[in-house]
Amino acid sequence: MKIAILEDDATLAQGLHKLLIEAGHQSHIFKQGDALLRLLKRGLFDLYVLDWNVPKATGLDVLIHIRQTLSMTEPVIFLTSASSEPEIVRALNSGADDYCVKPVKWKELLARIHAIDRRLARSAVEPVTHKTICGYWSIYLLMQSGIP
To answer: Count of H helices and E strands in the chain?
Structure first.
């Protein structure tokens, strides 16, 4: 997966970048929310990992722009020190798919990313277009259209 990381703590961002690379993903680090906002329309990423408290546009601002302005459906995980219940509820109700509170539990975060990746892979499977019945091909689309 191609993953955007919005994190202004350089040490944490590099640690997450390394973890993702080792797990077979690609990632790009953004230190400011406005830098990520400028690239959103290009659809370059499969997943967004957002910190709430970053300069120039918060992670929540980015999430709201992703969901409401651009109507994007790519998954979003918050990885942040914002740990109050109202913050978590606000992020989830605004369209976040998951929420992790710092300090980072690296294995747990990677497991959550892999769970999202599995769900994406399942939803990307093409629907069945044909069936074999008694050794003969039967066109599924014809069966659905009511043609005998």
So the answer is: 6, 7
